[in-house]
Amino acid sequence: MFRGPKKNVTNTNEQQNKKEPDKVPIPPSQTEFLSKLKETIHSPADLVVKYISETVTITFLDFLIDGKTLNEQILPTLEKVINTSPKVIKESLLIAEVDLVAELNQGILEMLIGAVLIHVEGHSELVIAKISSYQSRGLSAPENESQVIGSQVGFNENIATNISLIRRYITNPNLCNEKFTVGKDTRTSLSVLYIDGIAAEEHVNTVRQRISDLDILDLLDSAVLSELIDDNSISMFPQFLLTERPDRFCDGLLSGKVGIVVNGSSMAILCPYSFIEFFQSREDQNLRWPIATFIRLLRFSAILISIFFTPIYVAALTFHYEVIPQPLLVPLSESRAIVPFPPIVEALVLELIIELLREAGARLPTKVGQTIGIVGGIVLGTAAVQAGITSNILIIIIALCALSSFTTPNYLMGNVIRILRFPVIILAGFWGFLGIMLAFCFIMIHLLRQSSLGAPYMAPIYPPRWKDWSDSFVRLPLPLIRRQSVNSRETHTIQNTNDSFAKEEKVIE
Amino acid sequence: MKSALQISNDQKISSSLFFFVVTAAQIGVGIHGFQRVVVKNAGNDAWISVILASLFAHIVVFIMIRTLALYPSNDLYGIHLDIFGKYFGGILNFTYVLYCTFAFYSVIRNYIEVINTWVFPNLSQSFIAAALLILVIYAFTGGLRVLVGVCFFSFMTGLWILIILFMPLEYAHYNHILPILGNDLKSIFKGAYSMTFTIVGFEIINTLYPFAKEKKKVQKYVHLALLFTLFIYLSVILVSLVYFSEAQIERTLWATLTLFTVIKLPFIERVEIIIICFWMIIILPNLCLFSWAAYRGVKRFKSINETTFIWIFSIFIFFANIPIQTRTEIDQMNNFFAKIAFYIVFIYPFLLYIMASLKSVLRKGGSKE
pTM to 2 decimals? Predict the structure, then answer.
């Protein structure tokens, strides 16, 4: 809705033809070919040119290709075939991906991804042997979304590894993978993954449409992509999930969501995602249901505590003393007695300190980060109380709020919950409980207005889909939970199973 | 029928949501203090008046839906234009728009009064009005889907107040209810009549009906909603009757709020302050729905953008807040509104039903020839 006029399509090969209409033919002469090649890519230091024989030349970019394959497969074969056409070379090479191109720019593009170009004197065709190798870190445990029970593997920055991880989880011929290239300067490749027959066709189409409508220069991370293609980029709330857990990603695919994996980013995108799902963890499925339900309820009350507890303190102490029962009022006023600031200033300063601590902890190296916790938590906290700048009780409340905000299983949503507190505190400081209610209503309306890929953001709460409530605030035993939940349901599967679902399904979209 | 509405499928709302819409539309500011007027008329039989009023509302709803069902897809405004023609129908539409605006205004004015009396004596009226109107504008520009969502959440988040409502029963004197039917029938009916201001709100189906997905099911949900609100009103009046004495109720402006003052929870005192602030979410659906109903009517005169309409409407309401200041004036306004509402909501639907069915009989006759 906030997207500008639709821009031109940026899809792999078509787009190239559009952007570079002057197709450069490949010069048959060897010297001319090499000079043209060097001119186009500005003869970088890592360009390797090797003359195999008088007629055959190979060029590639060092470090981008797999040297072992080059030495063991390509070089011996090329030495055997002399004075032949590119076609023969292509057929005699024992490599999975070999191609012929008749156009220089396309060949160069392939070389930049990691291919060996084989030029034969007198032919205006190139053989492309794709033997790219990719340096990436090994698989490691997900650091931001840790989980006690469940798999301990996270995505890494290599799209191939990530997709192979996903395919290991879901062995299904219906798992579709569509490739896109985005960004004029970076040509970042990304894959749209979904399970045909489970994911709703309209959602897949919307994702396709939005990605191909992108007209951007560079794309370095999936978080940027998710902000570019979500429904309302102005809103504070994330509408797509970013996850580094393959099991959470696959769980999403299996419940009918569309996933996007971006090369170079260890976070994959899942959409459409509803508000309530951001507070659910994969681990909830792995625990016994009463425990999982308890933990979920704990998490949802943590949101409310985190957003509204400090504001309630501020409002009660500024305007509504009469709300506090007398036994509580005495210790409260005792601890407040020496504090020179009004509650709103006191609360804002302390909240700001907590935010500073968190930010410092996130930016510092892990070893130093622990010290920050001790310095901030113990030294600052006790010192502030003893110096009479804040009250004891507020320290408890602020700590409680901070703690609650960290229970959100999603980092992006956790941030929102934390930052949301500040305007509410200010409103509470000016207009008491009325201000808090204003904020509450405003947040409620805002959430109701949002959508994710056109599907309602507050589902299944509103529009009420009662059958999905078994896996929302609570998690009932697994047999009671319908697999395909919330916003992603293919219509025809529903018609097959149960007609009444279809009626209830799109209550209001 | 040129006046018929074209509503695409994705604009429609599920019939089950009518339950929440009607409940949210009915419960508003009236419930704060309806005990006084009802008890003044019906004495300790006020609860019978409440049941009577609700019964009458059921009948009216039945007639309203019968009228609306005569047309395949049309709201009250379209029916007016169809039956009475462009000019007289237009006048009737205008009256209904005025009624909706008046309802909106009376809700917002009463709420501001309560806030000023109970929570913030010094908070400027204009500020509260502006804050509420901004919320309404924000919800309204989101479209009908968001408005109905507000109703739904208002219902769901407001349920906890029901539990608190029964706490004063600790101090109840149940013999206050006796003798049953000690008052004559006329005063009980008069009591039922004075329920008008509190019970209206369900007339929203006049405009919302064409937006229902399965029109046949609407009736069931609206009646269910009326039963639910009857339950709430009945609980409130019974708790008030057994807690207060008759004379006390007649002297208490906001008996429901006074009821809440006696509740002491271990961690909160003076629950009524929290409840009054919380009431914002309960009146928000009222405001949204009445402004929406007015918008549907204005659209019949002049095709106008939603955003433009709600801004003009809000600015009008904002300035209309200034002249009425004292409690007496507000009380007079409420009585006047109740009188109008009684005719528009309770009497007029019967007349309209007769006209509409005559018209449909004539039309059928005409087409046969």
Answer: 0.89
